[in-house]
Specification:
The chain is of the alpha+beta class. It folds into two domains: 36 residues, no CATH class; 96 residues, Herpes Virus-1. Helices cover 37% and strands 16% of the residues. A two-stranded antiparallel sheet has the order 1-2. A two-stranded antiparallel sheet has the order 3-4. It is flat, with a radius of gyration of 19 Å. It starts with a strand and ends with a helix. It binds zinc ion (ZN). Zinc ion binds next to strand 4 and helix 1.
Amino acid sequence: MKTKICVKCKKSKPFGQFNTNAALVDGLTIYCKACISSGYTYGSKTWQRAMLNNVKTRASRKKIPCDVSAIRELLADPPVLCPALGIKLTAGSHGHQGPASTSATIDQRVAGKGYVEGNMDIIAQRANRIKTDATTAEIRAVAEWVAIVELL
Ligand SMILES: [Zn+2]
């Protein structure tokens, strides 16, 4: 049986597990059917919809402003790299282990001000977690302390 490696899940799968696309070299899509149906390719329409829904849910739970058209605009042109950490952003897994550290999240510049124009950035989950609840001074203090203990 002929197989091909899916670019997304990196698994070797039989040809039947890929959609056909005559425009491509071997006539098959680069992602397997399972990966395409999961739809969570970074930047894809499905990803954009999922991200928007997540943010809407979060905003209504926290009762903070949520400007849907501003969010749509932000998601339509997401950055390749996390502006904070410079790592390549991904759509993340939607398995039980929660989002990967590289998965894109929408961060509020000022927490509580809401998901509105000028208060949002797409950053990696990891950067978001580091930033959570900490002030600039606290992040600096911790970074300096880590740099010192690394030398010990
Ligand atoms: Zn796949």
